Amino acid sequence: MNKILPLSLIVLVVLVGVGLYLKTASRPVTTPTESPETSISPVALPVVSQSPHITTKPFPSPTPTPKATSSIQVIQRQVTPTPTPVPGEIQTHQVTIQNFTFSPSNLTVHKGDMVIFTNKDSSPHTATDIGGAWDSGSISSQPFTLDTANLQSKTYSYKCSFHPSMTGTLKVE
Ligand SMILES: [Cu+2]
What we know:
Shape: globular
CATH topology of the largest domain: Immunoglobulin-like
Structural class: alpha/beta
CATH superfamily of the largest domain: Cupredoxins -  blue copper proteins
Order of helices and strands: HHHEEEEEEEE
Bound molecules: copper (II) ion
C-alpha cells in the first residue's frame, strides 16, 4: 500500500495536468469570437512597424541627373551647323513688274550678278536702259534675265518702252 499511494498521486497529478492542458488548448478552438480580437492587435503592430522600414529604403535611391546631361549634349551637337557666307559669288536678284511698277524700283548689284525681271501684269512690259546699254524687249509670261557681267560700274536708268512713266534704276558696283 505504501508504494501504490504515491503512484496513484502521480497518476492523479498527471491526469489533472493533462486535463487542464486539454481545457486550455481547446478553449480557443471552441470560442473563436474571442481569439481573433486578441490575434489582430499583435499582427497589426508588426505590420505598422515594418512598413516605414520598407518605404524609407526606396527614397534615397532615385537620381535621374545623368539623363539630363546626355540630352543637353545632343542639343549642343544640333546647334553646331555653320552658315555659309560666300563673298564674291554671283547672286541672283529679282525685279517684279506688277501694277505698272518695277519692284524694287532702285536696285544695287555687284558686277556679274544676274537680275531677273518677272512680269505679273496681264499687259506686256519692257525693261529698257535709257542710255541704250540693254533692252529686254517685250516681257510677258517669260521672265527676262539681265547679265551684268558686261555692264559698266555705274547707275543705269531704265524704263518700260510701252509705258514711259514706269521707271527704275540699276546700280552696278
Ligand atoms: Cu510697261
